[in-house]
Recover the amino acids of this structure.
């Protein structure tokens, strides 16, 4: 009698029914967490906001007519072009430069560490980094420090003439109402500077004495705390001088002499200032430089991309370094023996050999970038979130904030359609590499 057919076995020797039983939990989870949500989103995208009326392609038309979605799509294009490119380029540079140094491993560890931080934590960190206040935001603290090194800000941005002052407004600064003369001390009182904002070199103001053939004077803070204390128009013992205040003597619209006030507010001009008007130019009163509005409408998207690069450059570096370790050293040495310099070796040998790895890294980051949400939602303030909007964030806003689940589902399907070609390209490339 013929023997009973044996149960087929898989390539690894395991019975297929046993293999199917082991795979069943994973398949159930895959269906419940991936397949069903995708199918439901596709169906829901054809219904209106309430879900009880068929909307046809109206939700998909909104993808190209709604201003918020169009801005999100434009920003997603910027993200896809720049974020993976910059991250991969930095990863390549780090991987190549740290290959020959002893502390390369430690450097790679430091660069890769941001990958251990969640997007939420990274968003909070960079929200503080980009804070407008230089005392809080690191980016503006550095920027303001560099700026002030070359263009020192004024210490008197709020200074202005008080009552009965001999000064009047003039093109952002102040000028005397009457000409001055040699041998007659001039008083230029101002108010409005907080005590903690006075220059470090400020001392107690002193009334300038007359000097033959010279114009002398004092500029100071003409304010003493306490009702009825002090005398207007003349320096009191507790009133500080405006150290560093610039004074110009102007005749017929031209500056004929200038001076800077000493720590006690006194200044001296030569005889050429006789008969001139004294002007305190606008440079004395310009507002202190407060840095760059990193999270304003113009720079918010590049700023958020910068935080993404900070996180993912380490990921690119590790993958590229692994690929670099497999590059035959004989090819590099042969190129050097043939007379190629390091730049030529890098451009004509290293990069072509790493092309498959670079392609995988770029494509992986492109898929990741298309889904970016956390960083934009956390870093971009409410005033500029519309300008930083991306498709994943717009999906959340439409679905949960604005109560339009139909349009949100259409955005989800659109994102899926954008990701699928990139994902298939990555899979094909990986299979091609395995065959090699």
């Amino acid at each position: 009698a013929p023997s009973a057919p044996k149960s087929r076995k898989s390539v690894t020797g395991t019975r297929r029914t046993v293999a199917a039983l082991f795979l069943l939990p994973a398949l159930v989870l895959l269906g419940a967490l991936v397949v069903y949500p995708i199918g439901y989103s596709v169906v829901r995208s054809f219904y209106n906001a309430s879900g009880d009326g068929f909307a046809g392609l109206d939700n998909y038309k909104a993808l190209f007519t709604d201003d918020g979605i169009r801005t999100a799509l434009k920003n997603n294009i910027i993200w896809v072009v720049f974020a993976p490119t910059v991250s991969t380029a930095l990863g390549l540079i780090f991987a190549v430069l740290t290959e020959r140094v002893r502390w390369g491993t430690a450097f790679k560890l430091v660069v890769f560490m941001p990958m251990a931080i969640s997007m939420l934590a990274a968003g909070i960190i960079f929200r503080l980094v980009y804070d407008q206040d230089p005392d809080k935001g690191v980016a503006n603290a550095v920027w303001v420090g560099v700026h002030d090194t070359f263009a020192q800000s004024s210490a008197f941005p709020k200074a202005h003439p008080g009552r009965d002052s001999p000064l009047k407004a003039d093109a952002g600064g102040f000028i005397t109402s009457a000409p001055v003369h040699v041998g007659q001390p001039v008083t230029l009182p101002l108010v409005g500077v907080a005590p903690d904002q006075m220059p470090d070199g400020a001392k107690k103001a002193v009334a300038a004495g007359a000097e033959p053939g010279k114009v002398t004077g004092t500029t100071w803070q003409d304010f003493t705390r306490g009702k009825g204390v002090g005398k207007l128009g003349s320096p009191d013992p507790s009133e500080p001088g405006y150290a560093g205040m610039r004074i110009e003597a102007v005749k017929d619209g031209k500056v004929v002499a200038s001076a800077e006030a000493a720590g006690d507010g006194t200044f001296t001009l030569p005889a050429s200032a006789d008969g001139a008007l004294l002007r305190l130019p606008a440079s004395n009163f310009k507002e202190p430089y407060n840095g760059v509005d990193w999270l304003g409408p113009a720079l918010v998207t590049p700023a958020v991309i910068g935080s993404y690069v900070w996180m993912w450059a380490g990921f690119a570096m590790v993958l590229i370094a692994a690929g670099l370790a497999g590059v035959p050293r004989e090819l590099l040495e042969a190129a050097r023996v043939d007379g190629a310099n390091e730049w030529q070796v890098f451009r004509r040998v290293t990069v072509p050999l790493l092309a498959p790895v670079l392609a995988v890294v770029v494509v992986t980051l492109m898929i990741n970038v298309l889904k970016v949400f956390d960083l934009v939602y956390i870093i971009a303030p409410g005033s500029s979130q519309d300008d930083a909007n991306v498709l994943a964030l717009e999906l959340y806003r439409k679905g949960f904030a604005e109560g339009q689940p139909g349009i949100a589902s259409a955005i989800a399907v659109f994102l899926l359609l954008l990701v699928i070609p990139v994902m298939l390209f990555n899979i094909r490339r990986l299979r091609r590499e395995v065959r090699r």
Remarks:
- Residues 185 and 217 are 5 Å apart (CA to CA).
- The domain at 45-141+294-435 is CATH 1.10.3720.10 (MetI-like fold).
- Residues 67-97 form the longest helix (31 residues).
